[in-house]
Q: What sequence folds into this?
């Protein structure tokens, strides 16, 4: 049976027009504040202490930037505008059109999310500018007969009426059901699961990997199948949305039964535009089903902000202060629309997204952010011949603070499996065999010194069973991680599982044109499939197994799912084995 939240959201029209991209996108005082920040810290993350270190870096940045800039970026926090509390009886249409979500499970705690949006395709989502009280409850059963926790929270207009409820006092390693209510409206029911106790012996952990869901490239059918899987959590590895224009027919979806409003047919730049884009994506019934079925652990890639940006460097030639404001808008809309906890709430153009999650003694997840602090791509980005510019020692992918945090954290890891959910391909990946090959300057191949530092850090910390989990590439890969990439006989030090896209790239094929060439060029490549889908990772004490799920097509709804291939890892014996 399809759950109630599968119902389609009817397209809406009307509403107030958005500012055009050609007009000044951001208010003058914000642009002045951003200019001020840049003047004080013109360098990017390669300069130590410019915002890439948690705490110290940001404090330095903000203190020296001055109170005016801080105030300008902080406007829009609840209380600053004194929005009135309104009677929920004023909500005349179902406000739970975007469904519910949960995220970042801890032992006995989970984060619950929803956003009130009676008209998600309109700026302001069809609500007056005021706050609304929303009740929530968590139960042991889906009929809500045995309530575990309940409470009330406030949906603030400053956060676009989103709710982030950190529920504590739950049992560890347990399934719960949750829902929200405001006025006469009750949300769909979500299912979630808390993490096990830190010392618990966990027999099995099942997570799905997902990434790259371009709405305009096809249907999110993979999410409908992912919703049906038996999982502890979903790791979303970025490109949750794309900033590109979406036409009236939804691009490759080729809608015949609806027309999307013209306000989606432009690149997202402002806070209002990013918020609307989440409204469009989250109105997709398959994505809502996935969120309602499992807790999500998310990190972003570039498209939640802008294609291939690096730290404070935009893709294109725009004024630096404009990009900083765009980043602040994108980060804020991201947090508002995702089941993320309060420490992840952005401060202006900064957001602490990297964080660590544990699942008993079985698994440690170090969730990375490879966008916010990285050096600019070398040689103008894209596929290039490597050279001294890409190989410079000082180049960073994580920023000094995050890199230190990662390696320090590994030193105290007692986990059987150490997993690195992150965005871009970690293993070396040559495009052709032999001399004259090129590498992707946007992936870790463009930051080889940083990659070597991470691998050396893992080795020095003595962590067990390193598995890098990757999105971004729109194909499924399995790589052995080598101590020396030039020597196929060199020691294997870990594995990388890259999940394919949910929909980006439209319909894929099992063996893309470069299939044989890539295996020849990269002896440590163990698996490659070019179809759309997701990946299920099953961790046990002695084995880890990756099952690459694929859907034959995304340009038509309702495709079936199959397993394109499976790989096995044996604890203590690094390297991928075909199943
Ligand atoms: Fe992507």
A:
């Amino acid at each position: 049976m399809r759950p109630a939240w599968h119902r389609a959201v009817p397209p809406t029209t009307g509403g107030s027009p958005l500012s055009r991209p050609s007009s000044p996108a951001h208010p003058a005082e914000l642009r002045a504040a951003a200019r001020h920040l840049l003047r004080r810290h013109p360098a990017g993350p390669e300069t130590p202490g410019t915002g890439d270190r948690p705490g110290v870096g940001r404090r330095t940045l903000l203190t020296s930037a001055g109170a005016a800039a801080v105030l300008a970026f902080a406007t829009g926090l609840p209380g600053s505008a004194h929005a009135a509390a309104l009677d929920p009886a004023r909500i005349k249409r179902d406000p739970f059109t975007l469904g519910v979500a949960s995220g970042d499970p801890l032992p006995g705690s989970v984060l619950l999310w929803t956003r009130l949006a009676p008209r998600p395709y309109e700026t302001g989502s069809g609500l007056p500018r005021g706050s609304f009280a929303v009740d929530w409850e968590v139960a042991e059963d889906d009929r809500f007969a045995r309530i575990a926790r309940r409470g009330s929270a406030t949906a603030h207009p400053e956060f676009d009426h989103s709710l982030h409820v950190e529920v504590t006092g739950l049992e560890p390693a347990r399934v719960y059901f949750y829902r929200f209510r405001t006025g006469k409206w009750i949300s769909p029911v979500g299912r979630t699961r808390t993490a096990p106790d830190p010392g618990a012996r966990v027999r099995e952990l099942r997570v799905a990997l997902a990434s790259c869901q371009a709405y305009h490239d096809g249907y999110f059918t993979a999410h409908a199948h992912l919703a049906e899987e038996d999982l502890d959590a979903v790791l979303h590895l970025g490109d949750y949305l794309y900033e590109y224009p979406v036409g009236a027919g939804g691009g490759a979806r080729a809608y015949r039964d609806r027309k999307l409003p013209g306000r989606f047919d432009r690149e997202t730049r402002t806070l209002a535009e990013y918020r609307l884009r989440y409204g469009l994506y989250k109105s997709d019934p398959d994505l809502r089903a996935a969120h309602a079925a499992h807790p999500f652990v998310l990190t972003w890639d570039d498209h939640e902000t802008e294609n291939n940006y690096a730290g404070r460097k935009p893709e294109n030639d725009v004024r630096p202060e404009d990009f900083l404001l765009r980043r602040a808008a994108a980060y804020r809309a991201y947090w508002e629309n995702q089941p993320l906890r309060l420490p992840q709430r952005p401060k202006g153009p900064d957001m602490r997204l990297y964080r660590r999650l544990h699942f008993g003694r079985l698994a440690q997840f170090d969730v990375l952010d490879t966008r916010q602090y990285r050096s600019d791509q070398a040689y103008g980005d894209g596929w290039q011949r490597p050279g001294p510019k890409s190989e410079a020692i000082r180049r960073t992918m994580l920023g000094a603070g995050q890199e230190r945090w990662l390696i320090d954290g590994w030193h105290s890891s007692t986990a059987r499996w150490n997993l690195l959910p992150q965005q871009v391909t970690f293993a070396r990946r040559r495009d052709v065999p032999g001399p004259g090959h090129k590498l992707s300057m946007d992936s870790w191949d463009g930051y080889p010194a940083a990659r070597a530092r991470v691998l050396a850090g893992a080795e020095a910390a003595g962590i067990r069973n390193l598995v890098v989990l990757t999105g971004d590439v729109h194909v499924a890969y399995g790589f052995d991680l080598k101590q020396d990439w030039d020597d196929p006989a060199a020691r294997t030090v870990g594995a990388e599982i890259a999940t394919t896209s949910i929909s980006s790239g439209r319909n894929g094929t099992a063996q893309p044109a470069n299939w044989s060439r890539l295996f020849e060029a990269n002896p440590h490549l163990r698996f490659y499939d070019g179809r759309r889908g997701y990946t299920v990772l099953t961790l046990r004490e002695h084995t880890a197994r990756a099952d690459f799920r694929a859907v034959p097509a995304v340009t038509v709804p309702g495709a079936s799912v199959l397993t394109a291939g499976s790989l096995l890892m044996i604890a203590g014996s690094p390297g991928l084995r075909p199943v």
Q: What stands out?
A: The longest strand covers residues 147-155. DSSP finds ten helices and 24 strands in the chain. The domain at 204-578 is CATH 3.60.21.70 (Purple Acid Phosphatase; chain A, domain 2). Residues 320-336 form the longest helix (17 residues).
